[in-house]
């Protein structure tokens, strides 16, 4: 659940999603669910000349399992908070 | 006579199952009894890792200490500690 | 009772990753990729966030390496093969 909460804090931020098939999509993160499926708005493909088939698409739903990376801007992440949350999540997991 | 015989038979078979459950170990129990020894983990991609088993969990995630990576039998890399995600494992050699 | 106690004391593989929070790690990924970066967060699926990350993508020959930088990147756990601390 940690990264579900993490991505919720990134809603309305600009992100670049890199898929496992090498397509890179830049867009505004609109929503996220527990599977880390993502809804992106105002999208554009970073490598458009290679993958032109998303030119006409504005909004996209990305299945979480197809994601390889999500690139973020450094100032949109509170690193100390994320580290502490990771430790807390690990503690909670150990208690189970 | 017959019921008593049946009864003793029943009791001994219960004992049998009891002993079975005591000695039966699942793969992770077995591997945790072997912590500290040198093992080789082979991954689906064919790469092998040899090192001292430090810990293992139910996903078969492992941590190897002073591990070496072997690609096609040639040593290609060495690690102080390495965490290997369980889903990549094909088999473990002791 | 005693088994519960030993389970709590026992080191888990994911503990190694927890010790690496705020430290540089080396991550080997599927698709002949490697990544180095400072670990900022992780979960039990090995999903993780790395800061100041450098990605190395290896071609058919080990020499042709493509290098990519990212100031903050989320890596989905299912692509991860192994994680190792970077010793200085």
From TrEMBL, chain A:
It is found in: Nucleus. Component of LSm protein complexes, which are involved in RNA processing and may function in a chaperone-like manner. It comes from the Eukaryota. It comes from Australozyma saopauloensis. PROSITE patterns: SM. SUPFAM superfamilies: Sm-like ribonucleoproteins. Residues 2-76 form the Sm domain. Its main location: nucleus. GO terms for molecular function: RNA binding. Belongs to the snRNP Sm proteins family. One of its GO terms (biological process) is mRNA splicing, via spliceosome. It holds the Pfam family LSM. CDD domains: LSm2. InterPro entries: LSM_dom_sf, Sm, Sm_dom_euk/arc, U6_snRNA_Lsm2. This is LSM complex subunit LSm2. Keywords: mRNA processing, mRNA splicing, Nucleus, Ribonucleoprotein, RNA-binding, Spliceosome.
UniProtKB/TrEMBL annotation, chain B:
The keyword Cytoplasm applies. Pfam families: LSM. It is found in: Cytoplasm; Nucleus. Signal peptide: none annotated. Keywords: Cytoplasm, mRNA processing, mRNA splicing, Nucleus, Ribonucleoprotein, RNA-binding, rRNA processing, Spliceosome, tRNA processing. One of its GO terms (molecular function) is RNA binding. InterPro entries: Lsm6/sSmF (IPR016487), LSM_dom_sf (IPR010920), Sm (IPR047575), Sm_dom_euk/arc (IPR001163). Coiled coil: none annotated. GO terms for biological process: maturation of SSU-rRNA; mRNA splicing, via spliceosome; tRNA processing. Residues 26-94 form the Sm domain. The keyword Lyase does not apply. One of its GO terms (cellular component) is nucleolus. Belongs to the snRNP Sm proteins family. SmF/LSm6 subfamily. This is Sm domain-containing protein. The lineage of its organism: Eukaryota, Fungi, Dikarya, Ascomycota, Saccharomycotina.
From TrEMBL, chain C:
Residues 12-88 form the Sm domain. GO terms for molecular function: RNA binding. One of its GO terms (biological process) is mRNA splicing, via spliceosome. GO terms for cellular component: spliceosomal complex; U4/U6 x U5 tri-snRNP complex; U6 snRNP. It holds the Pfam family LSM. Transmembrane segments: none annotated. LSm subunits form a heteromer with a doughnut shape. Keywords: mRNA processing, mRNA splicing, Nucleus, Ribonucleoprotein, RNA-binding, Spliceosome. The lineage of its organism: Eukaryota, Fungi, Dikarya, Ascomycota, Saccharomycotina. It comes from the Eukaryota. Belongs to the snRNP Sm proteins family. It comes from Australozyma saopauloensis. Binds specifically to the 3'-terminal U-tract of U6 snRNA. It is found in: Nucleus. This is LSM complex subunit LSM3.
């Amino acid at each position: 659940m940690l990264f579900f909460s993490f991505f919720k804090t990134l809603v309305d931020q600009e992100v670049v999603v890199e898929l496992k098939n090498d397509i890179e999509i830049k867009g505004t993160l609109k929503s996220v669910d527990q599977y880390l499926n993502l809804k992106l708005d105002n999208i554009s493909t970073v490598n458009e000349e290679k993958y032109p088939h998303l030119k006409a698409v504005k909004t996209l739903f990305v299945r979480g399992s197809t994601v390889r990376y999500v690139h973020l801007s450094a100032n949109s992440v509170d690193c100390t908070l994320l580290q502490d949350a990771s430790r807390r999540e690990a503690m909670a997991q150990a208690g189970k | 006579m017959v019921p008593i015989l049946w009864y003793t038979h029943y009791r001994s078979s219960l004992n049998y199952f009891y002993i079975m459950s005591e000695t039966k170990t699942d793969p992770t129990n077995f591997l945790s009894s072997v912590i500290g020894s040198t093992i080789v983990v082979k991954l689906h991609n064919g790469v092998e890792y040899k090192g001292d088993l430090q810990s293992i969990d139910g996903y078969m995630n492992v941590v190897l200490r002073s591990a070496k990576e072997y690609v096609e039998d040639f040593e290609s890399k060495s690690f102080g500690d390495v965490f290997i995600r369980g889903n990549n494992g094909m088999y473990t050699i002791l | 009772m005693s088994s519960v106690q030993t389970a709590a004391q026992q080191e888990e593989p994911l503990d190694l990753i927890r010790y690496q929070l705020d430290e540089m790690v080396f991550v080997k990924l599927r698709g002949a990729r490697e990544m180095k970066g400072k670990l900022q967060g992780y979960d039990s699926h090995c999903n993780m966030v790395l800061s100041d990350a450098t990605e190395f993508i290896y071609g058919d020959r080990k020499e042709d390496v493509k290098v990519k930088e990212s100031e903050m990147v989320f890596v989905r756990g299912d692509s991860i093969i192994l994680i190792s601390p970077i010793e200085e």
